[in-house]
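Weekly puzzle thread! Below is a chain. First person to post its structure in token form gets bragging rights.
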Amino acid sequence: MHIESIDSTLHTSSKLFELMHTRLEHLEEGQHALVDGQHALVEGQHALVEGQQQVIERLDRLVEATTRERTLSFERLARVEQRLDVVERRLEERGDA
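Winning reply:
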């Protein structure tokens, strides 16, 4: 009877260890899948950062071009206004004379 009890306990323990081993294998597989997913996420984030940097660089170039164009326009307008001032003064001088 005592041997049967020991045999039954060993059988139960063996079954328990099998179940624990199976669960541990599933847990390891899940952890590997999680790590793989995290690596993919990090790679995706790096790609996103690179894309954002490209957008920022393009926006910087656009701002530079817009600023340059506005500066040139303001300079042209200032020159036209100066010429107009000269013409107006000459016309006033002729009118006074």
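Puzzle host: Confirmed. Bonus trivia for everyone else. The first helix runs from residue 2 to 96.
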